[in-house]
Amino acid sequence: MPFMTDYSYPLRAGDLLVERYRLIDRIGAGGMAVIWRARDETLDRLVALKVLDPRLSGDERLRELARREAWAVARLNHPDVAGVHDFVRTSTPDGREVALIVLQLVAGEPLADRIALGALAWREAVRIGVRIATVLEVAHRRGVVHRDITPDNVMVHGEQVTVLDFGIAARIGEPDDDSTGASFGTPAYVAPERLDGMPAEAATDVYAFGVVLYEMLTGRPPFRVRGWDDVAADHGPPPVPEVPELPRAVAQLVTACLQREPSARPVAAEAARVLRAALARPQRRWLVPAAAGTAAVVGLGVLAWALPLRDSPDDPGQARTSPPASTPGFGAQGPGSPTAAASARPSAAASPSARPATSASASPGASPAALTVKQAQSAALATIALAEQQGLRSDVALDLRNLVNNLANSRATGRPLDAEIQSVYAKIDSRVGEGTLSPEMGERLRGDVAALARAKSA
Known about the structure:
The protein has helices spanning 60-76, 111-116, 122-141, 202-218, 228-232, 248-257, 268-280, 295-304, 373-389, 394-409, 414-433, 439-457, and strands spanning 16-17, 21-29, 33-40, 45-52, 84-91, 97-104, 109-110, 144-145, 154-157, 160-163, 170-171, 285-286, 308-309. By secondary structure, the chain is α+β, with helices and mostly antiparallel strands. It has 3 domains: 16-104, Phosphorylase Kinase, domain 1; 109-280, Transferase(Phosphotransferase), domain 1 (Orthogonal Bundle), CATH 1.10.510; 349-458, no CATH class. The strands form 4 sheets. Strands 1-2-3-4-6-5 form a 6-stranded antiparallel beta sheet, covered by helices on one side. A 3-stranded antiparallel beta sheet has the order 7-9-10. The termini are far apart. This is non-specific serine/threonine protein kinase.
């Protein structure tokens, strides 16, 4: 780890910075900064201090990067992003100027350590992928591009997934101040367009996300990239992750994220919805022989034990089929364009029938396409009621009910309807981001709204 044996580095365990933060030990390091575990002696809590190497403190550009990282994280305020408490410029004990970011101390292990042990089970990979894609969706909607999504910058702790290190984040549309990209990011996760000096765009995060998702599913990166020359090289069509039982929609999503052309990649919101839908699908079931009065029927029932039931026409066994170069349902999604409505992409919406029934009005055997507007509306309202029972504030619950009812009763079609749906999604994400609605209830309610969108477009 850099700086560990470098005695010219001026900070030591036990040092007190800004008369408040007592350094305990180093927990990470990079080319420009060291991460310290520290104690906030004012509030008596542990924090993480990201300290720009004081030997680089004369570089105003690097100090500005540190300030922008604090800006980006504070702008998100998302439960899956390590929160920022403060940004401070101070001096080391020997008088050198230093910039530091005070961050939430996150428990867990880097996703990179998990992958180093081998590929993750596809459901675990997709569960983690949903959380990363949701963070990117919120970041992009608020004008922030992370630009360094890698397994090292994702922390996993039980069900919790935290995205770290917004150290090279930029505003969408901001000019790239390094035409080579050599000082930004890890080559294997850098989108090819970064080398062209293009302005910061959300599609670069989606590419990196595709690399991470492929790596989680297979245990290896999709392309052989060791340096910047490899980033610039055209590696041909993206490989399909060959994983048993992987839903075809997930395999198609991965290859879509890895498209060389930025406009051919899906937006983060769409990626999140595809992955949620994959998790919502029931796992493969086996027919249980019913009681029968004749030997013939019993024989058929016994035979049925060997016949798996497919839960949807999207057969997981077909995941190895290569999608076309331009995957239907993806692409033509420039970073500034609105996300397509769930009604336009049925496979990208969570199926309410994949969960325990939340509404007496919904037919237990109904498929998502069979739901009426009334049934979908009732399911969404039942989810809000359940969230309220779990502690959701009554005023927030009322606001969400009004949004669902307004959407259900709206006569808008086409683009106006798409805009209304996106407005509801944005409100749900806002409530999750501020902590008034749990991420689980937020994902569930999103699935209900997607079902309502499909019903209205039918």
